[in-house]
Amino acid sequence: MEIRYLRYFVTVAECRHFTRAAEKLGIAQPPLSQQIKKLEQEVGVPLFERLSRGVALTPAGQVLYDDAVKILAQLDHAVQRVKQVARGERNQLRLGFASSTVVSQAVLELVRRLQQAHPDIDFQPIELPMPALVETLREQDVDLAFLRLPCYASEHVAHTPLFPDPFKLVVPANHVFAKQQSVTLSQLGDDPIILFPRDIGPGLHDALVDALKGAGLAPSNASLAPQLHSATAMVSAGFGIALVPESLTTQLSDHVAVVAVEDMPLVSHVVLAWQRTNTAQVVRRCIHTAREQVTQMGS
């Protein structure tokens, strides 16, 4: 299938009229109609419904349109990057952060090392909730992303593990647990537990709720923090206690204390993820460097 066929098809779909599309493309209308007919013959189904005053996409045409727009955008992006290299300009890499990873000191240290190892790359940070971030990866609107597992949507992308991040209990500094080295989940029943909204991380939320229910706790009455990393601030303000990944407890105020949970069955994992079909050299270089640096950071 020729790329120009897709461009012609997308233009007709957006103009909803062959004559207007031909004018926009700078070609005559009859050749455009012939090219669309050839495309329909090639895919084996009608793509447009011919109307008295224009055309409309068929269901099959709508499917092709959605994919064609993405293909053409990726092609234009690739051409632009080739021209940048030819002009000696810096490479760009769109680096995504799940909201619960952006304050992790380990993640930030790895990003610093990536920038030091690749001074020719212009890293562009993007912060999103995990489901939205995975979707941008799948659409290749983001090149690499730091995710926190478990995450249902992560099944659709490739990823490499960075580090485990066990959950810790955060309590007010004057709480009875504040001076204890550890507690069990069953001891938490008397305090309101602060959770994060399910829609910002369904997989992690469900796993945490299951862990609480397994200990006989009722998280349905929990307070909600705007984000996972906001839960510690709500503890400091006196809203309750919170279970958060350890990496979110490294720079807390004196108004809270961090306590280990002996029987916590849930361990989150921070990973670096990418779209499986993304073969860009700049992406592969950063994945390789991230793996090397994580090994050094852990030694």
Automatic annotation (TrEMBL):
InterPro entries: LysR_HTH_N (IPR000847), LysR_subst-bd (IPR005119), WH-like_DNA-bd_sf (IPR036388), WH_DNA-bd_sf (IPR036390). It comes from Salinivibrio sharmensis. Keywords: DNA-binding, Transcription, Transcription regulation. Belongs to the LysR transcriptional regulatory family. This is HTH lysR-type domain-containing protein. PANTHER family: SMALL NEUTRAL PROTEASE REGULATORY PROTEIN, TRANSCRIPTIONAL DUAL REGULATOR HCAR-RELATED. Residues 1-58 form the HTH lysR-type domain. It comes from the Bacteria. Coiled coil: none annotated.
